[in-house]
Write a structure and sequence with these properties.
Strand content: 15-25%
Radius of gyration: 16 Å
Shape: globular
Order of helices and strands: HEEHEHEEHH
Oligomer: single chain
Number of strands: 5
Structural class: alpha+beta
């Protein structure tokens, strides 16, 4: 059974929760990614995505230079261990409807990588189609419907 350590991306860059939203966006541009783990030292405390920046900062009119990442990040983050079976992690991704998941070292609890749908598609073929379908299934909007 294939483990996460065999397919994960190891060159993961994190950002401090005190960094600015602008710096997070610049890092995403430099790294060509849509999400960056947020860490205090070795401890994973959240994820900031391009969507977080757009919806929680830009749409709200927040200054990108004066708004810290911690104000827009997602704090309740799903994660996995490097020694977990890939099939188990894909189930976790389906259940949470997420496209990427941080990978923690089982012994040190430190962030050591990330697994994305791209990693699954190129390095692990079983169940990828189902995972993508389940992740992409629209969920109900988290806002009230407007009356016409």
């Amino acid at each position: 059974m294939q483990q996460v350590a065999e397919i994960m991306t190891r060159d993961v860059t994190s950002i401090s929760p005190q960094e600015s939203v602008r710096r997070a966006a610049q890092m995403m541009d430099e790294l060509n990614v849509g999400a960056i783990p947020v860490c205090e030292g070795d401890k994973l405390i959240g994820m900031v995505t391009d969507r977080d920046i757009t919806i929680r900062a830009v749409a709200a009119g927040a200054s990108p230079d004066d708004t810290p990442v911690q104000q827009v990040m997602t704090g309740d983050v799903s994660w996995c261990f490097d020694d977990q079976p890939v099939d188990e992690v894909m189930e976790q991704m389906r259940d949470a409807q997420i496209r990427r998941i941080p990978v923690m070292d089982h012994n040190t609890q430190a962030l050591i990588g990330i697994v994305s749908l791209g990693d699954l598609a190129t390095k692990h073929s079983a169940e990828v189609d189902r995972t993508l379908e389940d992740i992409s299934t629209p969920s109900q909007p988290a806002r009230p419907q407007l009356n016409s």
